[in-house]
Amino acid sequence: MQGPSTKSFRQAFLENLLISLQLQQEHTSKHDSSSLGAAMSLHERKLAVKSSADVAMAAARGPGARWTRAILAPASSACKVQRCRRIVIRCRGHKRTLKRSARGGGGSTSNGGEVARRLVRRRTMALREVIPGGRDAAVDEATLLREAMDYVVHLRAQVDVLRQVSEAVQRSGSSILQ
C-alpha cells in the first residue's frame, strides 16, 4: 500500500490518470467520427474526468481496500481498451481476502441507549451509501470506519494532485498567451 502523501502514490496516480484520460479521448474521437463530429458536452467531460480520476486513485492505492475493488470492478467490465484493462488487472491482481471479526452484542436496554443505537445505525447506513463497497452486508462497523478513513485520505490526496495539475495547466496556458 502506498500512502496518499508519498511521492510514489502521487506519481502512480498521475500516470494512471494520464493513461485513462488518453483512453477517454481515443474512445471519444472514435465515436465522434461515426456520429458526424458530435462534441462531448461539459457534463460528459466532467463525468469522464471524474471516473478517470477515481480509477487512477484506486489503481494507485492498490488492492488492499474494499473501496478500491468497488471502483475498479465496474471499470474493468466497462473498459474496452486493452491498456486500460492492464491498469485495472495490475491493481486487482493481488486480491487479499480479509477475515472479519464477528459482531459483538450486548448493551443496555435503556431509552437513551436505544436512541444512541438508532442514531449510530442511521449514520452507519448513510456512511455505507457514500463509501464505494460499503453496501456489502459483510462489512462490520469497524471495517466500514477504517475504509471510510482510508477513502477520505485518498480523496484528499486526489484533490491535491488535481489542484496541482489545474494550476500547472493554468500557468502553462497563461505563459503561452504572453
Set down the secondary structure blueprint.
Layout: H1 7-34, H2 42-61, H3 66-78, H4 82-92, H5 111-130, H6 141-177
Helix pairs in contact: 1-2, 2-3, 2-4, 3-4
Q: TL;DR?
A:
The chain has 178 residues and is mostly helical. The protein has helices spanning 7-34, 42-61, 66-78, 82-92, 111-130, 141-177.
Report on this model:
With 178 residues, the protein is mostly helical. It is built from six helices and no strands. The chain has helices spanning 7-34, 42-61, 66-78, 82-92, 111-130, 141-177. It is elongated and about 70 Å long. The protein starts with 6 loop residues before the first helix and ends with a helix.
Query: Beta fraction of the residues?
Result: under 5%
The topology string of helices and strands comes to HHHHHH
Distance from N terminus to C terminus (CA atoms, Å) equals 43 Å
Average pLDDT over all residues? 77
The level of helicity is over 70%
What structural class do helix, strand and pairing data support?
Answer: mainly alpha
Instruction: Enumerate how many helices there are, as a single number.
Output: 6
Largest sheet: none
Global shape? elongated
Number of strands: 0
Low-confidence stretches: 93-105
Keywords:
178 residues; 0% strand; mainly alpha; single chain
